Amino acid sequence: MPQSTFHYAAAGGLVLRGAELLLLHKHYKNEYVLPKGHVEPGETLEQTALRETREETGYVNLRLLDNLGTRRAEFPLNGRWITRDETYYLMTLVDERRDEAQAHGDADHDRRIFRRLWVPLGEAADRLTYEPAKTFARDAAAWVQAHGLPTMPE
Prior knowledge:
By secondary structure, the chain is an alpha+beta fold. The chain has one domain: Nucleoside Triphosphate Pyrophosphohydrolase, CATH 3.90.79. 27% of the residues lie in helices and 42% in strands. The protein has four helices and seven strands, in the order ββββαββαβαα. Strands 1, 2, 3, 4, 5, 6 and 7 form a seven-stranded mixed sheet that branches. Strand 2 and strand 3 form a beta hairpin. Helix 3 (121-127) runs antiparallel to helix 4 (133-147). The model has no long low-confidence stretch (mean pLDDT 92).
């Protein structure tokens, strides 16, 4: 019997701090993921990436470096076939300031399920649980190889 299909767009960020990349550990599933989420009506992919990354990591001051492109993820979930177009942006921290008192709709959920983990950029793809996140992490490493490490302002 064919499954119903649900398609949506998502955007997120690969956040650099020097030579480290920020992963989110969903400890209750033991999954390592990148911050991302649904594109809201009227929102650009860039706006979504910044919003979701801020919401899921708590880091307030992020600087966009580059659009790493869009890849499709497909998987079954609860009797439906999900098709998600994921766009990721490479970002760097401007500073380490975090907003621990976030009040967005999923803030409590995000604080409960995500643990921040900084890993060496070269190891990030192997730590991530799913594609296309693994490929995006390799793309981020290639970007740094080509452009050098971004620096945080003094």
